[in-house]
Write a structure and sequence with these properties.
The protein contains eleven helices and 14 strands. A hairpin with a 2-residue loop joins β9 and β10. α3 crosses α6 and α3 crosses α10. The chain starts with a helix and ends with a strand.
Amino acid sequence: MYDKIAERKAIRTVRRKKIQDLLAVLFFLLLLPYTCSVLSGIRQEEAVETFGNGQTGTDAANETFILWEKENGTWKLTEEEFLIGALAASMPAEYRTETLKAQAVILRSICYAKKENDGKLLWEDCQLECLETQQRRTLWGEDFEENEARFQKAVKETDKMVLTYENQLISPPFFRLSAGKTRSGAEIFGEERIVWCHSVECADDQQAELFLQEKEISRSSFIKKLAEAGMVLPDAGAKVVLTRDSAGYVVSVQCSDSQMEGEKFRRLFDLPSSCFFLKEEGGKIILQTKGIGHGLGFDQYSADLLAAEGKSYEELLNYFFAGTSLEKME
């Protein structure tokens, strides 16, 4: 008798449990659309148009902004925040404030020249690197606060300032260290293009720590890399001829009927400069370079030396880009 009563209680308990489970499932299904909506809202919130200074889209509707595609959506950066990050990515923190200002104008000019009529600019279109706040904090370490303040100052004190030539916005090129003088834009690209990019003397660059650098590669690897790039050396005694511009930078690399642009050769062998020299010793090819970068436009190292002499950022820009105008965009 007792066993039968216990059995009936157990059956009722199981039935109640099943009913509770069923109700829980129904309740979950009823709430599912709401739950998905909430979760979707959270994901969208992570990917909203977010500014580096914490503002959201409507707070800076009249700002120039940069659209940056990331894994969690499209981010917006104000012009100021982007330029601070781009400045940090393109110039050493120890450079003087006037040098930073000149570089900030160059970066802004590049951005404005690429900008669409509605003020939008895709990050990849301007082809500039940009370090986010956390990356700058990691890079500068204990000097972050001081450097951040200096870089902000350089951007703010040149607000809306850009370079133009004959009333047209230009995209001024820049690089780190010359081979003794900068290159002529007209010589490289023709008399009708980049005529405002003159060749100027930067003799003191030769005293820089990384002015001369060398890289060794085996002859077999050298020939293989050239062959993969479509340039074949016909025999072991074939000579490689380097054609240079007036500033000493390599314009073309030629061997018999094969030819390659100097910049392509530089990228192929990951050289720090387009001013390079080749020699062979003991079955190895020695690649020697002078300076850092392509050598065209604004020489950052030389500009910083001029800033140390008291030159303003306006004077620095005029030295490397004579004939251009410094204007404030409305």
